[in-house]
Structure formats: structure tokens, C-alpha cells
Write a structure and sequence with these properties.
Layout lengths: L1 H12 L4 H10 L6 H8 L1 H15 L6 H13 L37 H5 L3 H7 L3
Helix pairs in contact: 1-3, 4-5
């Protein structure tokens, strides 16, 4: 599960739109997208796991870009996931699935152009998700 969520984070950091990350994961046979899953399990928990891995195993054990993304979401923007109604993209109404639409541009270091998005290989993206 952690690798699945991490792959979603890495795709976001590459500039792949959140909705495309989520839809590609479902096309790969996953019941829920990695960003929605992280919203459900708590984004701050993900940050705690990354920090614990770094403390126990050293800085080479984590992806610093993923750590920064989680720190920005949790510490700078107060996005904890379902538990506070603010996840990766939108306010999560009580009783509804989190779903992921647009992630705030200020949270992402890179944004792909429309042409770059259209050139993405969906089959390759599907294979990036661990089964």
C-alpha cells in the first residue's frame, strides 16, 4: 500500500494531473486511486511514516521530494485528508468519497502542458502501480 501511495505522489511531482493519476490507477485494476487512498488513511500519517523511515534508515531511505510534498500539504496548508475534510485536492464533504480533482498549483513543483499530458503513455503509467 505504501508503494502504491508513493507512486501517486511521484506522478504528481512529475506534473501528471491528479485526476489522471487516479483514473490510471483505477484502469490498472485498483479499487481506489492512490491520492484518494492517502486522503482516507490521513496525509499526516504518511508524513509520519516518511519521517520515521528517514530517522530509522537514514535519508537515503526516503524520497526528499515526496517528504517536501507531504510537509507542504500538512504543515503549510493544513491538509490532513478525510479527518479534517481537506485532502489532496478539494474539500471532502462528510459521507462522500474523497475523489481527486485539481491539486493546488502552489503545492506542485511542476505542471505539464496540455501537449505533454497528451503524450503520456497510459499503459506505462498503469504499470508503475505495484500490484
Amino acid at each position: 500500500m505504501l508503494n502504491y501511495i508513493q507512486e501517486g505522489h511521484l506522478m504528481l511531482l512529475e506534473g501528471i494531473p491528479a485526476a489522471m493519476v487516479e483514473n490510471t490507477a483505477r484502469m490498472a485494476g485498483m479499487p481506489v486511486g492512490p491520492l484518494s487512498l492517502n486522503d482516507e488513511t490521513a496525509i499526516d500519517l504518511g508524513l509520519k511514516i516518511v519521517r520515521a523511515a528517514e530517522a530509522d534508515l537514514g535519508p537515503q531511505a526516503i524520497n526528499p521530494a515526496q517528504k517536501k510534498l507531504l510537509e507542504d500539504l500538512v504543515e503549510k496548508n493544513g491538509r490532513l485528508g478525510r479527518k479534517n475534510g481537506q485532502g489532496f485536492s478539494t474539500i471532502i464533504p462528510k459521507g462522500s468519497p474523497s475523489g481527486c480533482g485539481r491539486v493546488s498549483k502552489k503545492l506542485l513543483p511542476k505542471k505539464l502542458s496540455r501537449d505533454e499530458i497528451e503524450k503520456l503513455d497510459v499503459q506505462e503509467m498503469k504499470q508503475r502501480f505495484p500490484s
